[in-house]
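Notes taken during the Thursday session

The instructor put the following on the board and asked us to keep it in front of us for the whole hour. The protein is Energy-coupling factor transport system permease protein. We were told not to look anything up and to reason only from what is written here. First, the residues (242 in total):
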Amino acid sequence: MNFLKVKVDKKRQGFIKLDPRTLFLLILFSNIAIFISSSIYSEFILMASILLLCACCGILGFSLKMGATYFIFVLLDILISRYFGDSWMIYVAVGIRFIRKVIPAGTLGAALIQTVRVSEIMVSFSKLLVPRTITIPLTVLLRYFPSIGEDRRAIKKAMAMRGLRGGFFMHPVRTIECFYVPMMMSASRRADELSCAAITRGIENPKKRTTLTEVRFRTADYTCMLCAAAVTVLCIRGGSIW
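Then, after some discussion, the predicted structure tokens were revealed:
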């Protein structure tokens, strides 16, 4: 019976396994909380909660990178606002602040792509009775970005083997020739390949889809949704509980 055994991607295994609907709801809560919040402390609590969740989902390295990125943008925002607040740099601070507020939701979106399979997303959407006109483009889009990331890493390695290091600033012409042109060709090819693969796997089949992984709400899902609601209320109240 060995042929019935299904291989599980160990990179996606963590302490908890969240339902795709829970992650979409968390993205919605984080967007509401981060743009309504008027306190930097409540933003810290929100971002720390998201990073802890990503670590529990099995993507510790990614959570550390996003935490460091968020800290850098916060530091730049504080420095520019404090020491260059009366100059044109204040416009730069506005852009940095906007990127800083997008990072929490972007982190959850990346966690969704890295920890949830496309088939699980389609099954969860079918349970919510989401129209297929929305489900199919969204699932293809979620599969498209990881494929482009794989091509990007392969092109970067090929450039490194040829001694092209340092990026656009060190080799502007060669970078355009050896990186951007292959990336554009790869993006077009990947789009055609994903479309053919989706049709071959019966993505347009009107019947109910099945999956080898059970998609349902668990204790971790309810706990995350309650914590997300509490953090959202905290952000709306400006960091004050009472």
